Amino acid sequence: MQSQHMIRGLTRIITLPVINVRIVLSLAIAIILLQPQMTKAQEPTESSPEVIAWSQLPELPNAHGLGGPVGGVTSDKLVVAGGANFPDRPLAEGGAKKFHDAIYVLEQPDGSWRELEQRLPHPLAYSVSVSTSHGIVIVGGSDGDKNYAETYLMRWTEGRFEIISLPQLPVTTAFASGTVIGDTLYIAGGQETPDSDQALNRFFAMDLSPLDSEQGALQWRELPGWPGAPRTKAVAASLGGAFYLISGYDPQSTTDEAPLGGYLTDAYRYSPVEGWTQIKELPRPAVAAPSPAPTVGPSHFLILSGSEGNPDLLPPNDYRPGFTPSILAYHDITNTWTEMGQMPRDIEANVSPVVTTFTATWGDQIVVPSGEVRPGIRSPQILSGTPIRRQSAFSILDYTVMAAYFIGMVLVGIYFSRQGTSTEDYFLAGRRIPAWAAGISIFGSQLSAITFMAIPAKTYASNWTYLLVNAAILFVVPLVVFCYLPFYRRLNVTTAYEYLDLRFGPAVRRLGATIFVLLQLGRMGVVIFLPAIAMSAITGFDIYLCILLTGLLATIYTTLGGIEAVIWTDVLQVIVLGGAAVLSLVFLISDVGGPTTFYETASAQGKFHTFDWSWDYTLPVVWVILGGNIIMQIVPYTADQSVVQRFLTTRDEKGAARALWINAILVIPATLLFFTIGTALFVYYQQNPTQLNPTLQTDGIFPWFTTQKLPTGISGLVIAGIFAAAMSSLDTSLNSVVTVFVKDFITPIKKSLNDQSALRLARWLTLTLGVLGTLSAVILATWEIKSLWDMFTMIVGLFGGPLAGVFMLGIFTRRATSAGALIGGLAGALAVFLVQSLTQVHFFLWAACGILTCLLVGYLVSLISPATNRDLKGLTLYTLGRSAD
Fold first, then answer.
1. Residue 267 contacts residue 279 (beta carbons within 8 Å)
2. DSSP code of residue 879
């Protein structure tokens, strides 16, 4: 019988009179059979991809240029100061080096430099210069006669620079390397005196936060040195909360037999938690390259030029070739170096790659001021680079497939609008949805576009530690089937919050419904906006177009077709995305050399690591992940109308139970599939680092691969499917919120409202909320929001757990009262807020804190409050009748 329902349902989709989905399916099959030329040729090319578009800012007023200048960006002003050059005659002709103390300021990229009357405390060059939120920090340096341990803060105050002395470094140093991570400044290496033939292997850190808080004293801390050779003229970088020390020069490694032995190619990463680890060796030395190395995107930093140890720094001779123009990009996830473009070189225009200077980020520009273009020769040039956004090349066939898919979604809504003649149809599909379709829809509603991108991205960037997150559903489904489902089905409710009314009264019902509505209203803009960011970056579509496509199309078919359109589009979406995932994995495994190579490479990198055994409640260890997520999964499956409503659309209680089990069964292979894809993406891009998109956020790595490597047309179908997954998240919120509005707020107040009026109201509410949700996503696109999803997750954790706790009080206790439920829910929310704010408890445990607090406080309040006279027959586990619904 079940197989007949499945065949009938699938036939229904394929043979809808006005929806020729067969066109889309035929296109997909035809694409696979096309000639190889239809696939995207994305093999690595001999020329490296450009990652920076270079231009020039106004030249420095000092026509000789400056080597080793100090400066950076503060108060939106570019500052270049100090430095050294040969103003009288070149080094090769015996010229003497002069050190400077002048300060130059450029206030606008198209403005003019101003030389200030104000000067540095003394001539200074070859310091560490770092732009921070407090101002420009300058550490060490030299004036030619001696090296310094002085540390300064330069910040713009009332039209001039305030130069503040900070604690001196414990050692004098010049040609050191440094950068800031958060509010911590790190300094490494250098040389102690101008005539020293030894480099330093000393590493220091200073917390700068007291500069703002005025609490606590600034002080340097010496940290363990890196495990490699001492070095000077190295490059520093910060990425992912870690400090990197790259290349450099060690005089002690230079001998008569190996005059270039001091040009180092090793590199190291320092993490405050893990200490020092060696990373992959550079393909060439990068001595004295501009530092700190600029970051591009979330996972790359760039080494701009640098001395390779040609005759550049050897005793003077007639051959002065200048420095390499090549740019090396390091990717911290795959631990790979690759050449990505070049610095500009135009001899006639006097533009060349430079060394011995700093870098600064000015707006969206990477600025490399002045510096040394050849040994002993400086340049007044100010190079400015803007990261290039790489995008996929979509074909006409891709656009055609996407258009057909979107039209199909709308036509689904039109078709089901003809069957939706009552609120029972609009909210519950007349309770005629087959169990298998309801189960796929539940699964699809949880498989949002964010999830489709985020799970592979997580394993691509880390390992399989989070595998147990979705395994928790297997423990939750039996609890829902046996302890919750009977109440929702046998009480014949439309929303979960109707149960709260029957058990505790209208006040608790309204509170539960209000919390759900507010969470979903907040969710609408987020679930449209976040996928739109990635899709815009990948496809080149305008982000506002991505938002409007997602929001308005979902609003149209949901308004027309109600929950039935939502469920059947979910089914189609799961089929498309599931097929795309399988096809992508096949391409990935094939491209990396087959299953054996894939497994051996990933295993060697520890990418299959799954279990962390510890009792630390702040880390994602086994008990935190599994235990926390068992309780977290209780929230959506018991207290979230968007999930509950789906298993209310089946014919009977047994069908609802089957739907829940089908969802759980789908979750396990899907989890393994997406985790494997993420690991395969790591192996693929470790082998092909030039195909990475440095400006792309990590969450976009999977759709980026599909658009780069899948056959033309199929990639268009995948991108359409990801848009549809975002639509699924929106349509779920729309229909469930409108259901709650009508059933929990309007109908109890306006009892005279007939069913046809309620249906018209539901459609108008759906349309209105869809437009508002889309507009909210448009507004979000205009804001600077870096952790929107994290913020929303915290809000869900704040209220979701306590709401689930209120349902538990009602079902698992007879003593719980309305007062106990209300106060327990508020106490649970307060407990989660305090845990979030004051502790380091892992966020997987937040829901547990909310639920347990709600249960404990709610039950205690119920014991001291007057007992209810409410008839509890059929409302608790102890008074539940066993008749079939």
1. yes
2. G
